[in-house]
Amino acid sequence: MGATLWEGVVRLTIALTLILAGCGSSWTIRKDSELAVGCVLSNFYLDSDEDGWGDGSEPPEQACEAIREENRTASNGRDCDEGDPDITGLVGALCPANLITVQPTDTAIQYAGVLFDESEFVFVFGQSTQTQRYTVGDIACEGWAGADPVDETWIARGQLATFGSEAELDAVKSRIEDAVGDSVYAGFIGIEWEGSSVDSGSWSWVDEESSDTLIEQAMDWCGGVAPSPLDFFPNLNPDNPDHAPAINQEMQRVRIAMILEDNGQWCLGVPSDAVMEGDAMDGLYTHTLGHFVCKRTKPNVADYTESVQSE
Questions:
Q1: Tens digits of per-residue pLDDT, 81-103?
Q2: Which of 234, 219, 241, 228 is nearest to 289 (CA)?
């Protein structure tokens, strides 16, 4: 069976005369008359923030077209945040609210997002939001981004954030500043260590689309000096042979953090660079713990349209 048909109503706005050839008779359908036709039913969800993604917490209405007077204009119920048009839909394994697995507390995770051209960014922040290692951030971002099959291998649609232009980076920085207010911030992004050892290598974007020159053009290194991978795991001693396996493993996983300092300036470094000495924020960030910024290609809402199928 095909899609369920609903006997919809079409109101004609002009007079139409149908001449039956050879019969000598005619039908006239006057203005505002009604003519029953068939249509394909679709599900329409409430879309309060008008971003094209609907509220899945309420059942949809089935109709031939969007019910605009009720704000039921979304053709899916996947919106991750019905109150924020910069947060799109669930296309991966989780929504931004679940980027961090929060232990039972009185405070939920804090997150925010920004859309820029064809990219979507989300980040977690706040003293009440758990801080995580860079490895956790990387895994969380991939889970939020979703994945596509390529040559029998699933390839993530996103990762820890990279930036193709200074304008894109500025949009993210501005949104973070709005979210955290007067606080500091440290969020891991997609800058990795490329080198054979902690003493031989350099920092580089994890993808090939981002310009490495943007790293130092857009933001200085915190304290004026690029960090060493060892700064992210100071408890490991490179002179101790027993620590060598752990160092080699961490060296491949470590990621730089973008830091908003207490003076309102941005820099790149380790999360502890964000700590304000002598302030209540002391201890929020350690060398290995911070928040993180994710990026993915903005999903096409049309790819997630729901139709009503016959039983």
A1: 999 999 999 999 999 999 987 55
A2: 234
